Amino acid sequence: MKAIHVHEFGNPEVMKLEETEDPKPAKGEVVVKIHAAGLNPVDTYIRSGLYPFKPPLPYTPGMDGAGIVESSGEGVTRVKVGDRVYTAGTISGSYAEKALCKESQVYHLPEKITFKQGAAIGTPYATAYYALFYRAHAIPGETVLVHGASGGVGIAAVQFARASGMKVIGTSGTEKGRGLVIEQGAHHVFDHNSPGYLEEILRTTDGKGVDVILEMLANVNLGKDLTILAKNGRVVVIGSRGTVEIDPRNTMVRNASILGMILMSASENETFSIHSALIAGLENRTLRPVIGREYPLSEAALTHHEVIESKAFGKIVLIP
Ligand code: NAP
């Protein structure tokens, strides 16, 4: 089979499409024939070698994908050969024609969801759910700002929050992105690059502030976020690419909380529960993964440039 290999950490061009042996499932493992692989920003951090977690070299990037179970090892009961599945984590990497996964890393893909959409579920939707419900404990009737709503996690968060009866405010840096955010269910959308947008957000809450902020770029926004929170407000730091200065007094006067999160810290039971919620939402169509761009596997390097350097519009997927 063909797979992307990283032999040394570095720029996107270190990713090479190479011929390799097909994976074989051991006890409790399955091999998924990948029809689409989902790209996440963390794939680029790991590839660069700057992320705290470094896989042994060489390795194949990618946690998310969707396809068909091709073979399964002893003791596997959750899925069977021929099932349509999406992956949330893999053993061997999803930027490949086939991926070896633990049984616990594969979930049934609802019938109406395409493989490309399936590749957009694992990390983004689980992250949005974990942030909104496990970290922020957001409840119906609250106001949620999805600060960076046009990408993989943001779209998922908008859909979850809207389906749960929250008032949803989203942001995007482009007109196309803002159109998408409204289409996905946000009540209001703003441009996070426009001066004065935070005041406009405050006005939509009649000056009370937002109850929850899901923050995709904390190094740029955290200090400002603290000024538009309501009393007992919570900011969940989902993404950050550097340091930031904040005024801690802004948390004191609001009784506010700053909550970090990393999806990997969810327990096995929490992960199973999160994916049960995702599948229910996919089945009843409140969750609708959006594919922005698709490329052949051979263009993996280009997609790693794009996800960091271009404006977001849904998910980028790679097709083996
Ligand atoms: P993505 O698809 O590339 O989307 C990035 C989002 O950030 C877009 O909505 C983009 O908006 C927005 N953005 C850009 N500049 C911004 C600004 N100044 N203020 C607010 N938002 C801004 O990435 P993703 O998959 O949604 O992931 C988002 C972030 O969460 C990434 O940093 C990722 O590494 C992180 N993440 C963390 C976890 C975790 O476990 N903690 C899990 C998954 C992802 P425009 O392009 O429209 O400007």
Structure commentary:
There is one protein chain. The protein has 320 residues and is α/β, with parallel strands linked by helices. 29% of the residues lie in helices and 27% in strands. The protein has 10 helices and 15 strands. Helix 3 (122-135) crosses helix 4. The longest helix has 16 residues, at 268-283. It is globular. The chain starts with a strand and ends with a strand. The relative contact order is 0.16. The mean pLDDT is 98.
* Radius of gyration over all CA atoms, rounded: 20 Å
Overall outline: globular
Query: Could you estimate the helical fraction of the residues in percent?
Result: 25-40%
Describe the main β-sheet briefly: 7 strands, mixed
Q: Whole-number average pLDDT? A: 98
Number of helical elements: 10
Note the beta-strand portion: 25-35%
Query: How many β strands by DSSP?
Result: 15
- List the secondary-structure elements in sequence, H or E: EEEHEEEEHHEHEHEHEHEHEHEHE
Small-molecule binders: NADP nicotinamide-adenine-dinucleotide phosphate
Structural class based on helices, strands and sheet pairing: alpha/beta
Residue runs with pLDDT of under 50 for 5 or more positions: none
The N- to C-terminal Cα distance equals 10 Å
Quick gist of this model?
By secondary structure, this protein is of the alpha/beta class. Helices cover 29% and strands 27% of the residues.
